[in-house]
Structure formats: structure tokens, C-alpha cells
Amino acid sequence: MITTKVPLPRDVGTDDRGYWSMPLDANLVKRLTRALVALDDRGNTGPRLVDDSLRLWRRVQTLLAMQLIPANADRTALELSCYALALPFAYDKSNRKRSPMRTRLKDRAIIAIEMLPPYFNHPDADDQLLAQTLNLLEQMPERAPKLPEARLLADAVNLDDFGVSGLIVQSFQHARQGDGLSQLIDGAEKRELYGYWDARLKDGFHFEPVRRIAQVRLENARLATKLLAQECLSEQPRDQALPPAPASDVDQSANE
Predict the structure, then answer these.
(1) Partners of 13 in beta bridges
(2) Mean pLDDT across the chain, nearest whole number?
């Protein structure tokens, strides 16, 4: 449990665009990184979740540079949120791990909210930063978040599903289930058939410029899927391209 303190004002500076800016505490980043790189309780580690966190943070910074939200946006809480949203995927040695790979954005945010507070259970913890980040994560999945930071973060996270990178993440999910390329292609075709991506483009973004980015990334993913399907089709033996002629036809041809 975290001991509630009266939050003190944080020593917040501003960057060259006027956004609130304060580097995350180095010890906090180390604790989060240690949890994200762990693959098991035998000391094996991997960089994927840390890389995902940093990639999301770079995407958030790109959207901030587009000046989609006011200049008083809290960059520090946004950066911490990028780490927090990777926590649901981290190894859980208590075996209470849920299945975040298939959860909705709301479920992922809820798990992140549950997992983040213990990392602030230190005497020098910044409780105000924690409160602001939890509020941001809580609002992010809402249809119309009040916080501009929550709207921007939601768009940045949703972009992850679009593009070639989103296709690769889907391949990871299929592999975890024992599926392969055929199932990946079949899933992509079904999403197109049922208008899944069109619906996501329409309802999944708060900012029109981000929606346009998603559209470009979607076209890239469609092209990659098409090329992948063509490669798989080209690997089929030629004698499977056309079914064998019925026996009666073969006999008749021979008699002629």
C-alpha cells in the first residue's frame, strides 16, 4: 500500500514548445525497466517491452510536435504512461498473469493502473506524478476523455494497430496461439470483409491528422498482406493449381 501524502508542487520546467517537461526519476525508470525486461524467474531478459515503451513515447512526442493539444500538456505523465502501458505484458512470477495480448485498450489501462502504484512505494516517490498518470490512464479509453493528454495518448496507442508494425504484432499473437501465416492472412482478409479497419479509422481517433497517418499506415499493411499472400500462393505446387480431370474425361480423351 502507498502512504498517502500531501502532494508537493513538482519542479516542472518547459521545453522549447512550452510543454511541461521534467525527466522521469532515474531510479523509477530502472525499476520499471527491470520489470519489463524480465522473461522468467531464472534471470533471462529481453528488450521487447522496453523497446515498445520507448517507441510509443517517440510516437507521443511526434504527435506533441504537431501541436494537437495545448502547450501546458504534462509530458512527464505521458512518458510514464508509455512505460505503464507495457506493464500488463510483463512476466508475472506469481502466476496471476492475465492475457493482455487480446485485451481491449480499456482492460490494458485498468491493468496498468493496478500495476503502477507499487513502483512508487518509496520515501522519495512523486505522488503527484503518480496521481496525474493514473488519471490520464483512467481517462484514455473513454470515448471523449476530458484530458487532452488522454486523447493524444489514446491516438498514439491506437496507431500501433495500424501499419506493417501492427501486422507484425498480429503475427506474434497468432504464434502464441500456435497459428501461422495462413491464419494471419485469413484474419486480415476477414477484417477487410467485415469493414473492421474502416470502423477503426472512423471511431478510433480523436485527432484528424492522426487519422490520416493511420490511413497511410493501413495502406502499407494492406500492401504487405497482399505481397505475403502472393508469396504463399506461389509456393503451392503447380499440379495443385488445377484439380485433376475426372476419370471419365481421361478415358474419353484416350479413346479419341
Answers:
(1) 21
(2) 83
Rounded alpha-carbon distances, angstroms, from residue 28 to 23, 119, 224:
11, 7, 39
In a 10 Å sphere around its CB, with 0-12 CB exposed, 13-18 middle and 19+ buried, how is residue 58 labelled? exposed
Query: Which CA distances in Å does 128 have to 5, 19, 76?
Result: 9, 18, 11
Query: C-alpha cell of 145?
Result: 476523455
Cβ 33 vs Cβ 50: under 8 Å: yes
Q: Dump pLDDT digits (tens) for 4-52.
A: 232 333 333 444 444 445 678 899 999 999 999 998 888 899 999 999 9
Number of other residues whose CB lies within 10 A of the CB of residue 237: 6
Backbone angles phi, psi at 69, to 5 degrees: -130, 165
Domain ranges in the chain are: 13-160, 161-235
Nearby residues of 58 by Cβ (< 8 Å), 6 or more positions away: none
Q: What is the pLDDT of residue 70?
A: 92
Grouping H, G, I as helix, E, B as strand and the rest as coil, residue 121 is coil
Q: At 38, phi and psi to the nearest 5?
A: -65, 130
If one counts every other C-beta atom within 10 angstroms of the C-beta of residue 141, the result is: 17
Q: DSSP assignment of 210-245, as one string? A: HHHHHHHHHHHHHHHHHHHHHHHHHTS-GGGTSPPP
Torsion of CA 199, 169, 185, 189, to 10 degrees: 0
| CA atoms 86, 92, 98, 102: torsion sign | positive
